[in-house]
């Protein structure tokens, strides 16, 4: 089948927050080979004005009804919803694009289900950088992957680790290291703040061997992620300084990463792994 005659894939989006709104707008404006089939939201009234502005308002459906009308689902929702969004799609051999990456670690069955049924779970680079290089290095031997994240206080507020350990970040006046551990531990303690560490770990040496420090820094306005990789093919370090979106926990570039991924799917020239 030529690219021109390729059938159009139907996309469903769950969650209209910082990421979902931008992705829906891009789909509404047009991405080759894709059509926006439906969305799922928690409170339709809250999004009535946004939906009315779209060129073509998609149907708003419960999560459980999306698989019947779509080939691809994009999860841009709170992490606990991940399994109910992804499971129906991968069980039917379809694709789930996942933003709440940390939740994959607590729902091992999903990747197994995708494997059994020919589905696919896709993790975009999201708020991070360089997952192409990390996956390439992982074809050889990676000796270590270390990440240091620095965030403004409001980008970390409310994380379970901070609440459980009664860390008073609101009154800090200088940078404070609030966590040091593995990507798996971070996914548990910071489910809405450290998906990037889990994405990095899945690209490289896994969630138990990827180490992470998290700093709260009252002087920062951006979410800063620095990664150091040492492998038998290369040694590299990379840093991204994300401008927060309307959601202070989420960098603006995250939605753009999803949109770029969607565009690559149907592109005649595809750059990057
Ligand atoms: N992989 C990555 O690089 C990144 C991942 N994330 C993660 O992506 C996810 C989405 O992030 P944001 O858009 O910034 O979050 P957000 O909080 O701005 O938006 C989530 C939306 O989901 C909606 N929602 C809640 N319950 C729902 C339900 N039952 N059905 C449908 N929608 C529901 C909320 O009302 C909200 O509008 C979060 O889990 C976040 O931690 C965020 C940044 C980077
Ligand atoms: O940096 C960001 O924008 C968001 C982030 O760390 C994450 O969700 O993992």
UniProtKB/TrEMBL annotation:
Pathway participation: Cofactor biosynthesis; NAD(+) biosynthesis; iminoaspartate from L-aspartate (dehydrogenase route): step 1/1
Q: Superkingdom of the source?
A: Bacteria
Q: Which reaction does this chain catalyze?
A: L-aspartate + NADP(+) + H2O = oxaloacetate + NH4(+) + NADPH + H(+); L-aspartate + NAD(+) + H2O = oxaloacetate + NH4(+) + NADH + H(+)
Which residues does the UniProt record annotate as the domain Aspartate/homoserine dehydrogenase NAD-binding?
Answer: 15-124
- Does this UniProt record's set of keywords contain NAD? yes
Where does the record place the Aspartate dehydrogenase domain?
172-259
Give the annotated active site. 225
Which EC number(s) does the record attach to this protein? 1.4.1.21
Q: Where does NAD(+) bind?
A: 127, 195
Main enzyme class:
oxidoreductase
Q: Does the record bear Cytoplasm in its keywords?
A: no
Keyword line? NAD, NADP, Oxidoreductase, Pyridine nucleotide biosynthesis
Q: Which InterPro entries match?
A: Asp/hSer_DH_NAD-bd, Asp_DH, Asp_DH_prok, L-Asp_DH, NAD(P)-bd_dom_sf
Family classification: Belongs to the L-aspartate dehydrogenase family.
Q: What does this protein do?
A: Specifically catalyzes the NAD or NADP-dependent dehydrogenation of L-aspartate to iminoaspartate.
Q: What else is known?
A: The iminoaspartate product is unstable in aqueous solution and can decompose to oxaloacetate and ammonia.
Q: Which NCBIfam families match?
A: PRK13302.1
Give the protein's recorded name: L-aspartate dehydrogenase
Source organism per entry reads Tardiphaga alba
Taxonomic placement:
Bacteria, Pseudomonadati, Pseudomonadota, Alphaproteobacteria, Hyphomicrobiales
